[in-house]
Fold this protein.
Amino acid sequence: MSTLDDYKKVMTDLRGGKFKPVYLLHGEEGFFIDRIAAEVERLALQDHERDFNQTILYGRDCDPDQVKDTCLRFPMMAERQLVVVRELQNWRIDQVEKLEPYLLKPTPTTVLVLCYKHKKIDGRKSILKSAQKGGGQVFLSDKVREDRLPDLLITFAKNQKRKLGSAEATLLANHLGTDLSKAIKEVEKLCLVTEEGGAITSDIIQRFVGISKDYNVFELQNAIGLRNAYKAQQIANHFAADPKENPLVLTLGFLNTYFNKLAMVHACEGKSQAELASLLKVNPYFVKDYQTHARNYSKAKLVEVQRHLRQFDLRSKGVGGDGGDPGELLRELLAKVMS
């Protein structure tokens, strides 16, 4: 199962009142860990039970013995007590392993949540199996691949009973990058301003997120791919007018990735659309666009384009030229790429 599938299952169990004695949450993506921990905190206890039955500890301020002693206490006038250890990654792994005897035989009336963020525990360590053997939940929070982010945003919107199209999800993903927490928060905001069952349109995104539906890197890619020089220069002018929101270094990185994908389309001629989608790491919805764009750029032209991209990347950093205005550099680059 994927991280997203595991996440949905854990959240479904929690909302159904099914609690594990231990939640060992670890991995590079902090978003899922934070969300699961917050949901356990929200649901494990009623408000009037929290004063005496909820303990929040931080890895930098506690040790294994303190965690175990806290977990061995009995709840006061409640079905269970909740113990949350945040920033467990501040412990050395040998300190984490000192919790293993407790994880094998956890206190039935305690829910222990261990948050080990930004890195994962070595899968060969016995503590992971011990936590599962003792009836606990081990959740590995992997980083979401950049090409999977649009699908995740679509799924999240669907769970909120809203519709988010592939083009709109890709627009958001390209603008927000791989910061999953930021991306999800933006989708949550968009869901709040969209009626239940409604569609999150590009107009709504432009109004509430500030991404122009007509002047963004996604539309720049399409203009370049279709050799629409006028549209590409219009977008370049828009970027030049607001360089803080449209930094040249990010635009150059995006274009480099885009042209690499066009080169891959040429190299994989004859592959099915499903195979191409996997190789390009894009939604199958966009494969035909890449195939169309690739027909407008020969292999020889793509080699030339890559040379221009390297040259302008150096010039933007003040190497091999006078640096120049970012807007002028982008306009000049587009003229050469589309000549």
In short: The chain has a mean pLDDT of 91. The first helix runs from residue 3 to 15. The radius of gyration is 25 Å. The domain at 3-140 is CATH 3.40.50.300 (Rossmann fold).
